[in-house]
Structures are given as C-alpha cells and as structure tokens.
Design goal:
single chain, 415 residues, 8-stranded mixed sheet, 5-stranded parallel sheet, elongated
Amino acid sequence: MPEPEVALVFSPDAWVEGLHRHLTDHGGARVRQVVMDPSLAFDEEYGTLVVSHRWPALTRTFVDAIHQRSRRILGVFDPDEPGGQEYLASLGVDRALACDASMVEFVSALVALAPERESTAPSLTALEAAIGGTGVSTPAGDGAASRRRLIAVGGTPGAGASELAVALAAAMSLQGGRTVLVDTDDVVPSIAQRLALGIEPNLRSAIESVEYGMGDLAGAVVKRTRELDVLCGLPNVDAWSQVRPSEVVDVLDALAATRRRVIANVASRLEDVGRGGRSRYGISRAVVTEASTLIGVAPASPVGVTRLLGWVTDVRALNPAAPIHLVVNRAPRDAFRRAEIEQEVRRSFQPERLSFLPHDPKVESAAWSGELVGYGPYMRAVAELAARIAPPLGTPARGRSSARRRPAGDAAMAR
C-alpha cells in the first residue's frame, strides 16, 4: 500500500515541525506541500490536509471546498485551549487529534484518513463548494448567466483603458441598475490610485471572502460615490503570483449575482507566459475568456491602431464569440482623419462598433485630483457609448445590423 500523501499547513506550533521531521526521517506518509497561504491548499495533489484549529483560514467554507475535491482534513487542537476540539467538529473536519499525541498516533490517523485514489472527483471551484457545501452541485448555467453581464475593458498600453473603465462604470450606474468596477489588471493595477482609494480592501480581500469564507464580500467593495462601487485590484504588482485566475473569476461571478453589470479592466498584455506553473498574465486572460462584452482602447495614431489590431487577435483567440467594441481615445476633431482611422481599422477587422472619444482637459484634471471626470465632451461620448453597449433599463437594444448600415455613425458621436 503506498504511503498517504499529505499537505501540512505551516504554523509556529511545535507539533508541526515535529510531524514534518518525523515523516521525512521515518516515513509513514509523504508531505507533498507545506501550505503558507490558503490558495495553495488547492494547487497540489494530496489526500489529507493537516491543520491547526488556530489557522485563520480554517472556516466551514474552506472545509467544504476541500471536501468537494475528495480530500480529507485532520484537525489538530490544543487540549489546553477550551473549545478547540468542538470548533473543529463544528467545521466538519474528518478527524480531530490533540497536538500532544504521539507521532505514531499522527501516522495512524493519516493512514486511516487516506482516501482511495480511484475516488478522486473532478475539481470544483470554492464558490461552487460554498453554494453546494452539502454535496449539491451548483445549478447548471448559473455561472454562464452571471458572465453575460461581465464587460472587460483593455487595449494598448497607456491608451486610457482604466480611465474608460471608470467612466463607463459611472455612466452605466447612472443609466440604471447596480454596476461595480473591478480592477483585474495583473500588470499595472491602478484603479485605487486613480480614484484616491486605499490599497485595502482589495481583490485579495474579496477572494478570501468568496473562496475561504473570511469576511464579507460586500465589505471588500468600496462605494466611491453614490453611483460608483469599486473593488480595487491587487495591492502590488508581484501579488499576481499569489492569486489563481479561477479565484478572480469566482469573485466576478459572486459580484454579478447581485449586480446588473460588472466592469473589469484588464492588462494590455495577454500572452500565454507561464512562470512557476502559473501564467504571468493569467488573470487578465481568464477575465477576457469569460467576458460577455469586450472593449479595446487605443490612441489615435498609426502605431496605436496597429497595436490595437494585435490586441484584437489575442482577444479573439481567448474568446471567439463575445462582441468586440473598439474605442479610439483622444481622437482628432477632423472628420477626414477620423475617417482614415476608421478605414484602417475596418480594413483588418469589423468591430461591433467603432467609437471616438475626444480630447477633454477635464480628464487630466480629474486624474490629478482623484475624482470622476466632470460632464463635458469626454463624459458625453462615454455616456453614449455606455448606452450602446448596455442600453438603459427599459430601452430596447439596437441591433448589430443598424451599426453596419451606418459604419461611420459612431464617428460623429463625439464631434
């Protein structure tokens, strides 16, 4: 019989080091992973998770998520702390053992808990586990239905995609229906800085709530103004390696369950670049893949248009079905130059719509002050763009055929 494979949650308790050393020197079970972060408990393949009752991430939601993966949990309690064993029992761990038990007792418990290898179930997301923690699977189509309300905004570097995402979220909120802006840029997360918000709560706070039951998801969403709800992005650039793309998708699904629209700005880089088993741009790639509507932004220059068409190629490889709206930011006022840009774009790709946003000094002024852009040429154009992408409540959507009959109609939008 092969040795049981276990994951050991790190803690400063003496029994953790003792058990690890005993298994390494004498065998009885194989330690596949030492878990430092809750998300790592879902990465490696193992049979039993060994964890202290003091671990903050040990919640009922977390236990259910582990069980949904056909894994077991050995909870270790301190007999000198009242309620430790009862707490583990209330969470539904498979077995509880006192921390002063002998190493032989630890090994015996791990052998008894070792699941049959043939019984491994398909991996489920922690959100599914939270919804169906009693063994009932998530109703089919719920995730797909919520993602029909996900709008991803990206484009070329420095084109103003984050600014457009902020403005779109504000405009769509004013048109009716709850809207939330989520910063999912895993290269330059900047929404918090743009809106003069703190780095906490942030995307990781929301993940801890949805995946591990730590805190309230609503508490991670900041109400920037009466019409704008914001979930700030990663606290720093390096944090991308600590987050799984599927966790971010779970958060977006949970937000979409209570809101009419979710707007997520994504990174300009979408290449499939792996590092340490995770894709460097995996978060943005996952959001683009799941989006119901895609918006690409580029500056009004030949290089900007060329890069935008390259972005469209990357996006289409990830999401072949979602409509793509293209936006030329800081567009020239001259109708002839706009027509040239439109001709160059449509020669290579036919977007759902092509829109032009004018230069507006209020945009730069708002960025310096951390405020929303005031009403003017830019916001007027964004409001019309928002109405075309997601018509206000009670307004029938315009069909794609009408846009094709008037290919230059959007060009006049912000004149």
